[in-house]
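for the writeup, i need someone to sanity check this before i put it in the appendix. the sequnce is what the collaborator sent (i think, or maybe the updated version? ugh). structure was predicted straight from it, no edits. if anything looks off just tell me and ill rerun, i have time this weekend
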Amino acid sequence: MEKDIQDLVRKIGELESKINAIYVSSEKMRKYFLWTLIVTLVVVVGPLLLLPLVIPAFLQSVTIPVGF
């Protein structure tokens, strides 16, 4: 009976350490996903916000003046 209790306590300790390792791993993945989202937003949304400012300047430099 005592041996069974010791085995159960040992197994619970092993499970607890595995759960802690899974928690640490999932937190790392959460941070990786967060930074991936931030970088994606900067790469995609940043140029979309700058496009209205760049297009008029580009069109002015490319078009031929009407006076010709």
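The mean pLDDT is 91. The CA atoms of residues 29 and 56 lie 42 Å apart.
thx in advance!!
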